[in-house]
Amino acid sequence: MKKVALVVGTRPEVIKMAPVFKELKKSETLAPILLSTGQHKEMLQQAFDAFELTPDIDLKLMHPGQTLPDLTSRVLLSVTEFIKENSPDAILVQGDTATVLATSIAAAFAQVPLGHVEAGLRTYNMMHPFPEEMNRRLTSPIARWSFVPTEQSRQNLLSERIPAELIHVTGNSVIDSLLWMRDRVKQSTISSADKAISIGISSKFYQDRMVDGKRWILVTGHRRESFGGGFLSICEALLELTKKYPDIGILYPVHLNPNVREPVNRLLTNNPQIELIEPVGYENFVWLMDQCYFIVSDSGGVQEEAPSLGKPVLVMRETTERPEGIDAGTCRLVGTDKVKILAECDLLLKDKDSYVQRCQLRNPYGDGTTSAQIRKILEADLCQG
After folding, report:
1. Catalytic site residue from 13, 23, 118, 298
2. Annotation marks residue 212 as catalytic
3. 116 catalytic, yes or no?
4. Catalytic residue among 128, 144, 184, 224
5. Per the residue annotation, which of 40, 116, 182, 222 is the catalytic one?
6. What is the mean pLDDT of residues 271-300?
7. 365 has a pLDDT exceeding 60
8. Mean pLDDT along residues 135-147
């Protein structure tokens, strides 16, 4: 059996690696090891619970007030020690976090083959998003297997002289997770009212804003480049939206980062049309995406998932490494500009034909078979002969 370590440190990494781990568990020739760095402790546990997973090894590296250099160095040293003690035959990372970059360097130093899930995403602007653009661009030359979600991502890597034989277009594993979780949510016997209350939504907001065909908007935000003025502008746009449309509701699970929570809580609390709740687990977030009218978010995962649920997304970023959603028409860039956010919300709330058309567009990020494709590639490459 060939040992394959899957290294995760944040909630999105768990969501996108969970189906890969479950798929590799089915293999007769591969033995997966789930390693958690603990980069985001609280939200990470939510994701593990959603997929009924427990990491085989938990490094528990998160420190209060940790800096990127501190975290990156501790991941590098800890993963290096893990490699010495466990001798994995391959290591898989996902995306573009500090965990990804540090693990990739550790794998390179130890000469362990590296697989990069969701490789090839680019904005070609090192500050948008920061530091994710840097992390993924430094990881690509190290990877033996680049599992890219789309043809555009493949072309990005080819333009950087990554050899074609190392690039595999597999779709995005987040669609595997989304479809699995959507089916699980639909099988639940819990009523919508009880689920809303369990999530932390008040019964008044639920009754006033979420039932009988009422339109409500799901909002999420956490990007570093929006800290400060960006989040102030976002909050001002949401407040203006409630004045313009007194019938709508806005549900906002607020990220744990204090740079997000301070302006959001200060400006949006006590508005009856806006419900601020704590971050929710993945299963509940899928339910919220499925129930809302549309989504305003700076999340990369949401840009990929929402089209499979028929939900338009307004992307609160200046650039995106996921242009396929923009090209397909399911997503639109609005940045943190108050005027742009309001204009695009207006279009979705006023133009029914445009809204319906955008709800029916095909998801460009995959069909739910990504994990199976990754398993076949690893089995063929690691276990031949």
Report:
1. 118
2. no
3. no
4. 224
5. 222
6. 93
7. yes
8. 98
| Set 137, 154, 255, 358: catalytic member | 255
CATH class of the domain comprising 2-172+367-382 = alpha beta
Distance CA 343, CA 341 (A): 6
Total residue length of the chain: 385
385 — pLDDT class (breaks 50, 70, 90) = low
Do domains 2-172+367-382 and 190-359 share one topology? The answer is yes
The residue behind tokens 């695009």 is 344
118 is a catalytic site residue? yes
Query: Is 224 assigned a catalytic role?
Result: yes
Fill in the amino acid letter for 13: E
pLDDT confidence band for 112 (50 / 70 / 90): very high
Domain range annotation of the chain: 2-172+367-382, 190-359
Mean pLDDT for 102-110 is 98
Which residue in 96, 133, 176, 324 is the catalytic one? 96
Q: Residue 323's closest CA among 360, 365, 261? A: 365
* CATH T-level assignment (fold) for domain 190-359: Rossmann fold (3.40.50)
The Cα 233–Cα 229 span in angstroms is 6
